[in-house]
């Protein structure tokens, strides 16, 4: 069978799949693995390379079974290979819209094809807000991070910065003091936005400094982060040495293709129960697109397993 014939077979618009999985991150790949082993007629749709955000994660140390750690790329590659070994079908395409309201769900692709399925697992993920300054993207994984839980242990006895002033930023700054020698919170306003009780804990922590009324305008360092260029609200600038920076200024849900008017959501993130079920029968959500997600690889994988069991039970009762 040629590649074109295989593609046409996978995008048979006349059939009704049992499950469509939207998104090929750790959650989607786990759901696909479970579905393939259960011999359910399933198709996973991913617009890019399978693996999701872990593809751009330099090193992962907290995923069970890898005592020496693993690069994000290798972990994603192994997940995808395992699912494909059991027969998981994948389609490289972008989903542009969905209608999930009927008993048969409809998913429209960027080429105009409309796929149909009895159930849908939504794993479209989320993305961190970025500073958008010179040197930021070039140093991702080399001192620039968007996840303290993921990368904090790499910065033992180092001086690092946290950019942001909300609850997450200040809480993570406190968490990072378990590892870092010194943590400096950089915030553009003259006071933090975090709740008062969280601020009080941070202010009492001798390892935390604050650089308020300041914005990071560049990440400096040729091979890794060496300093941040900071502009104060009075217009003055200076270069402050740091060995790492955690950018914690919020995340955005990848919900552009989702029918939010049909799905219960909180600030664009999907609301689910403990079985990953959304408010629409036959539709589950997994991973970072969930409002309750802790945004860890292992949590997304667990979501995928739970969601598959949920839709399998739904299919048994059709």
Concise structural overview:
The chain is an alpha/beta fold and 318 residues long. The protein has helices at 3-10, 26-37, 72-85, 148-151, 167-176, 196-204, 297-316, and strands spanning 16-22, 42-46, 89-92, 95-99, 105-109, 114-122, 126-128, 144-145, 159-163, 182-186, 208-211, 214-220, 227-232, 237-241, 244-247, 251-253, 265-266, 269-270, 283-285.
The poorly predicted ranges are: 1-6
H/E series: HEHEHEEEEEEHEHEHEEEEEEEEEH
What's the CATH topology label of the largest domain?
FAD/NAD(P)-binding domain
The amount of helix comes to 10-25%
The domain tally reads 2
Query: Span between N and C termini?
Result: 34 Å
> Compute the gyration radius: what is it?
22 Å
Tally of strands:
19
Shape: elongated
Largest sheet geometry: 7 strands, mixed
Describe the structure.
This protein is an alpha/beta fold. It folds into 2 domains: 3-127 and 251-316, FAD/NAD(P)-binding domain; 130-247, FAD/NAD(P)-binding domain. It is 24% helix and 27% strand. The chain contains 7 helices and 19 strands. Strands 1, 2, 3, 4, 5, 6 and 19 form a 7-stranded mixed β-sheet that branches. Strands 8-15-9-10-11 form a 5-stranded parallel β-sheet. Strands 12-13-14 form a 3-stranded antiparallel β-sheet, with no helix packed on it. α2 runs parallel beside α3 (72-85) and α5 packs parallel to α6. The longest helix is centred in the last third of the chain and has 20 residues, at 297-316. The chain is elongated, with a radius of gyration of 22 Å.
């Amino acid at each position: 069978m040629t590649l074109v014939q295989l593609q046409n077979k996978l995008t048979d618009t006349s059939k009704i799949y049992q499950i469509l999985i939207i998104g090929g991150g750790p959650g989607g790949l786990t759901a696909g693995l479970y579905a393939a082993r259960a011999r359910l007629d399933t198709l996973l749709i991913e617009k890019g390379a399978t693996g999701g955000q872990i593809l751009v994660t330099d090193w992962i140390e907290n995923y069970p079974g890898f005592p020496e750690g693993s690069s994000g790329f290798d972990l994603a590659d192994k997940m995808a290979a395992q699912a494909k070994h059991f027969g998981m079908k994948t389609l490289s395409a972008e989903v542009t819209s969905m209608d999930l309201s009927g008993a048969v769900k409809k998913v429209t692709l960027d080429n105009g094809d409309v796929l149909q399925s009895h159930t849908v697992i939504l794993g479209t993920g989320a993305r961190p807000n970025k500073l958008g300054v010179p040197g930021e993207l070039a140093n991702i994984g080399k001192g620039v991070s968007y996840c303290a839980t993921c990368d904090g242990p790499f910065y033992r006895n180092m001086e690092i910065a946290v950019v942001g002033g909300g609850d997450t930023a200040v809480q993570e700054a406190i968490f990072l003091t378990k590892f870092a020698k010194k943590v400096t919170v950089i915030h553009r306003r003259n006071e933090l936005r975090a709740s008062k009780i969280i601020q009080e804990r941070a202010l009492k922590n001798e390892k935390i400094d604050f650089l308020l009324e300041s914005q990071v305008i560049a990440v400096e360092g040729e091979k890794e982060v060496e300093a941040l260029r900071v502009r104060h609200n009075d217009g003055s600038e200076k270069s402050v040495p740091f060995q790492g920076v955690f950018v914690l200024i919020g995340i955005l849900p990848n919900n552009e293709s989702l029918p939010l008017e049909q799905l219960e959501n909180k600030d664009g993130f999907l609301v689910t129960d403990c079985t990953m079920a959304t408010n629409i029968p036959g539709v589950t959500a997994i991973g970072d697109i969930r409002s309750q997600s802790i945004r860890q690889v292992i949590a997304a994988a667990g979501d995928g397993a739970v969601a598959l069991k949920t839709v399998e039970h739904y299919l048994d009762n059709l």
